[in-house]
Amino acid sequence: MTEHTNPAAGRKREAPERPSVANPNAAPVLVRLPPPFSVRMSQFFWVLSFAVGGFTTVYFFIIRQTQLPLIADVVRGVSEGRDDQTYETAADIVFWTIFGLLVATLLAQITLLVSFMSRRPHMRWWQLGTLAVQVAILLLSVELVAIGDQGRQLRLLLAAECGLVLIALLWSVLPGAIAWSARQHDIRRGPEL
What we know:
The chain is mainly alpha-helical. It has 6 helices and 2 strands, in the order βααααααβ. It has a two-stranded antiparallel ribbon with strand order 1-2.
């Protein structure tokens, strides 16, 4: 028997071309892309306003005892000739009303920011509404509770909080933020290779 040599035995076989795993007609896939810079800046200013708002609320509670007689004097100026207990009760009611409005507005703004970051529709309008409430609280506070030396700092804190909310809202209406909100979902077609 003669030895047969195969000429292809010394050569290495090339692998066949593999089929593509990407399908141009693949179903869309939801992905989580980072929000644009304008949305991040809006979020930053909102969080900063929450910090200032929380500090303002705590400060307002701390100065309560010094502000109550001053609030009672404001109430006394509206209607004189009543018992002192009536003025003290009215001052308490005014204080707790403003305090409750501060806390409720802060909690509503936190909830609305979470909804905004989840791209719920019309959140900017609700956030604008909370800014209007904050301005009303500022104006009420100037007249009723932000009186005296410590009231001056309270006015500055409330004004700073309103300013931060306004800046946050302005960042949220820039074109990148509007487009990000309108998209509602980030979609990718098929697997990435």
